[in-house]
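Section 5.1 Outputs to date
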Amino acid sequence: MIRSERSGLYNRRGLPVAREGYAFILGSAFVTGIVALLGLYVTALFFLAVTLFVCFFFRDPERVTPDKEGAVVSPADGKVVDIRVLQENDFAAEKMLKISIFMSIFNVHVNRIPDNGRVSNVIYCPGKFFPANLDKASKDNERNAVSLEISRGRKLIVVQVAGVIARRIICKIGEGDRLRRGERFGMICFGSRLDVYLPPDTVPAVSVGDKVLAGTSILGCLA
């Protein structure tokens, strides 16, 4: 079991479950056991199914991250729902390319760093809990933005966006941390969205509707 001192997340070879899920899994398993001891077997089967689903949700598989020069990888598993160039956003005044990824409850929810760099700041914004597949979620929902200084003085921003079910954003990094492309840095519990803001001259490697994998799929290449 290899621990990343920067992120506080673990790389497990024998137990591919995120540590953040232990409390949920143990709690659900405990309820299942109590209900079974009371002889309520149909109810116990229901809670057993819930426990298995929670284990499935918090799975944390290993990923092979491409080492292609200038590549920016996806920070999340899910579906690309938006690609557009914005003149500014809530976290930067300059023009940037935005790529949004929607994660359903069936996707792996461990988030990974898109590119090598240094964390310049982490900004948490309280907000609402609209469905994460809606455009207004990027501005109105609870968010956590990680700004990363990457090569040649450029900036990259990853924004974790809570959804209608997701009510807990986990981010294990802070200002000054130096991170590697594909490194785990946090997760969002139970369905959510990630917005990635890239330099405007980034060449997209995905299209709206594409399915991507965190740490593996290339979102674009820096010019």
